[in-house]
Amino acid sequence: MRPCRRRQGSARPCVHSGGGACDSRPTKARFFPPPTDGAIAAGGRSRSACPRAVSPDAGAGARGGSGWAECRARAFPNPGCRACSRRNSPRQRQSVPVTDQVDLRSQLPAVGRIRVRELVPRNRVRARYAQINRFEKALADDGVTVVKVFLHISYEEQRARLLERLDNPDEHWKFNVGDIEERSAWPAYQEAYEVALERCSTDAAPWYVVPADRKWYRSRAISTLLRGHLQDIDPQYPKGDFDVEECRRRLLEG
Q1: Is 180 within the bounds of a domain?
Q2: 45-66 confidence digits (pLDDT tens)
Q3: How far apart are the C-alpha atoms of 81 and 100, rounded to whole Å?
Q4: 207-225 burial by CB neighbour count: b if 16+ within 10 A, else e?
Q5: Is 166 a member of any domain?
Q6: Is residue 152 included in any domain, yes or no?
Q7: Residue 31's pLDDT is what?
Q8: Does 2 reside within a domain?
Q9: Cβ pair 13, 210 in contact under 8 A
Q10: What is the CATH number of the domain that holds 99?
């Protein structure tokens, strides 16, 4: 199965609940189908359960070249008022991948928390959507492949994962007390993310929505997504700038 691109105005999965259909707002975001009952019963071992093609809330950028040398990941903290006041965020410009590099980063906090907590006026938030689109289009025009994945988990699943972190001392470093307060604004965050998916899913950089309550499905969906894009990019090992036969001769003679 392939993630579908629904026609404008048609019913589509709704990010408010993690299932069902919602025709409240058309979008260009592409939705991976939820795992089937048969795949769930198989414990994630069924290959047919995973979409077979295409590709923080996370985004990835890859710039092709003669060879691949590095993959880096960076997670930006939630923006504060000072970061919101800048028209062109330095952290965006600093995270642009260079040639032969894959860059992983989180993006949605830039518009999610700002909108929910009203850190800036609403018209500034709308301008931010346009800024993101221009930035990503510039990346695409410059040869960067932009892959954006929205990992959607349900309200109940988030609570279960937070409780697991509390129950396991080895995972206390992952726990953020602020997440408890942020959960009280869950409906507002879902609306903010839905608006972001609508406004910032473009032909140059579409959003892919992946059901993430089951980690095996999430990982398999993202893997096939990135594999499809990497096959299109067709990365190659760097070519040597030396005479292979001459080097072989010198080694054998020595």
Answers
A1: yes
A2: 333 333 322 323 445 555 555 4
A3: 34
A4: bbbbbbbbeebbebbbebb
A5: yes
A6: yes
A7: 78
A8: no
A9: no
A10: 3.40.50.300
Instruction: For residue 111, give the amino acid letter.
Output: V
Q: The pTM is what?
A: 0.68
* Type of residue at 129: Y
Number of domain units in the chain? 1
Mean pLDDT rounded to a whole number for the chain:
74
Q: Which domain holds residue 39?
A: 12-253
> Where is pLDDT greater, at 6 or 74?
74
SS (H, E, C) the chain: CCCECCCCCCCEEECCCCEEEECCCCCCCEECCCCCHHHHHCCCCCHHHCCCCCCCCEEEEEECCCCCCEEEEECCCCCCHHHHCCCCCHHHHHCCCCCCEEEEECCCHHHHHHHHCCCCCHHHHHHHHHHHHHHHHHHHHCCEEEEEEEEECCHHHHHHHHHHHHHCHHHHHHCCCHHHHHHCCHHHHHHHHHHHHHHCCCCCCCEEEEECCCHHHHHHHHHHHHHHHHHHHCCCCCCCCCCHHHHHHHHHHC
The answer to whether 115 and 98 are in contact (CB under 8 A) is no
